[in-house]
């Protein structure tokens, strides 16, 4: 029996205008009314998803989100962190050197703040345009505080050049970090082993649930672990081919209320 629905945001719950459809809202409201936990699982920090959580009435006691691609599990109403994992300062130095060697702009996230680093003299980061709700700072490499908590590092840049440079990432980096694309123009680096499945597994344990009680819905590479972990993994019709192959079922696209259709069919048992 599905008792928790884990939902990705971009390309999944959100349509191409970054909006939540009326049908998606209604399905989520019905699921919550039946006692099902609805959990947003995203690479974003909590501050960048509050408008969506408010729109879905998911900011009450007992509502949770998995943020930073599994790096944090938080209570939506208070922001309290109940589980966490983050990059070490020494690890961040490896990623800075990597970005410099690839001539790509590296941004590091520390809670609600984004630090844009000058790792490329000519290529400017596009991350600020992707996440305008966050607070952005342009800093020198010597201005990074070794005592600060760094949740993840990202590279937001033109897809063609980014994909070209991704092929040059050494095996050692992939062995040391989770290296995943979460959007066409966004590459993310997390501590090894920290994935959406990792964060979701901690939350389900805390709630006394099992993977069999979980339905995960996603579309991109960073959703793969979540779909593998969930008892029922659902891919969007607009998902990458790899995600579709990994899923137990495929629903309609993010432009056609795919999330609502999955909840209606597998959670609310409508149309069966």
Automatic annotation (TrEMBL):
Q: Which Pfam families match?
A: Hydrolase_3
Residues of the signal sequence?
none
Gene Ontology MF terms in the entry: magnesium ion binding; phosphatase activity
Gene3D superfamilies, from UniProt? 3.30.1240.10, HAD superfamily/HAD-like
Query: What InterPro entries does the record tag this protein with?
Result: Cof (IPR000150), HAD-like_sf (IPR036412), HAD-SF_hydro_IIB (IPR006379), HAD_sf (IPR023214)
Please give an example of a GO cellular component term from this record.
cytosol
Give the NCBIfam families listed for this entry. Answer: Cof-subfamily, HAD-SF-IIB
- Return the PANTHER family for the record: HAD SUPERFAMILY HYDROLASE-LIKE, TYPE 3, PHOSPHOSERINE PHOSPHATASE
| Annotated protein name in UniProt | Haloacid dehalogenase
């Amino acid at each position: 029996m599905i008792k928790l629905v884990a939902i990705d945001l971009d390309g999944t719950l959100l349509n191409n205008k970054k909006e939540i459809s009326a049908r998606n809202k209604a399905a989520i409201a019905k699921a919550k009314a039946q006692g099902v936990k609805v959990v947003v699982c995203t690479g974003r920090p909590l501050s960048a998803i509050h408008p969506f959580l408010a729109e879905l009435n998911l900011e009450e006691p007992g509502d949770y989100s998995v943020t930073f691609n599994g790096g944090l599990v938080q209570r939506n109403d208070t922001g309290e962190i109940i589980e966490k994992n983050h990059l070490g300062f020494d690890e961040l130095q490896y990623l800075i050197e990597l970005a410099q060697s690839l001539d790509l702009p590296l941004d590091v996230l520390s809670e609600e703040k984004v630090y844009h680093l000058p790792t490329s003299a000519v290529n400017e980061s596009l991350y600020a345009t992707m996440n305008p709700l966050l607070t952005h700072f342009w800093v020198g490499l010597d201005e990074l505080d070794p005592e600060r908590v760094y949740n993840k590092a990202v590279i937001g840049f033109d897809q063609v050049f980014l994909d070209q440079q991704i092929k040059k990432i050494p095996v050692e980096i992939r062995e040391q970090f989770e290296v995943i694309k979460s959007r066409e123009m966004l590459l993310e680096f997390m501590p090894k082993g920290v994935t959406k499945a990792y964060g979701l597994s901690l939350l389900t344990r805390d709630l006394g649930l099992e993977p069999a009680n979980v339905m995960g819905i996603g579309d991109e590479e960073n959703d793969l672990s979540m779909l593998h972990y969930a008892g029922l993994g659902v891919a969007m019709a607009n998902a990458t081919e790899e995600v579709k192959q990994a899923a137990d079922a495929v629903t309609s696209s993010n432009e056609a209320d795919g999330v609502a259709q999955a909840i209606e069919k597998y959670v609310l048992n409508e149309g069966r």
